[in-house]
TrEMBL record:
Record keywords, A-Z: Chemotaxis, Cytokine, Disulfide bond, Secreted, Signal
Bias type Basic residues, positions: 94-126
Start and end residues of each stretch annotated as Disordered: 92-126
Family: Belongs to the intercrine alpha (chemokine CxC) family.
Localization, UniProt: Secreted
SMART domains named among the record's database cross-references: SCY
Stored PROSITE patterns: SMALL_CYTOKINES_CXC
UniProt keyword Secreted present: yes
A Pfam family that the UniProt record links to this protein: IL8
Domain Chemokine interleukin-8-like: 28-89
Protein name: C-X-C motif chemokine
Amino acid sequence: MKKSGIPLLLGFIFLVVIGIQGAPIMRNVRCSCISTSQRTIHLKSLKYLKQFAPSPACEKTEIIAIMRNGDQTCLNPDSADVKELMNQWEKQISQKKKQKKGRKHQKSKKVLKVKKPQHHRQKKTT
């Protein structure tokens, strides 16, 4: 093999390795929720709410509630209470986004303090 072919071969191998590293990997091989909880969850105790759409790995919709104390609970997406909780959560999130946008667009008023020049009084000499 000629010396000019070695850099070409190394470049080809480099590109193949990069392509392999960028290949998508399945997040889950199965559903995250084995069973769902029937307990009532209050919006104030909720830290975050995750909803996963059906996918090739799991063919059902999954809703996971993460509580402020760190507990995670799977919720039944067909329950009327869970649907109402989702609506309340989405309203709360949209209100927070509006508040953040409002803060960004408010102009901050800067008050410039102007120092008065101090005149040094000269003593009169007589």
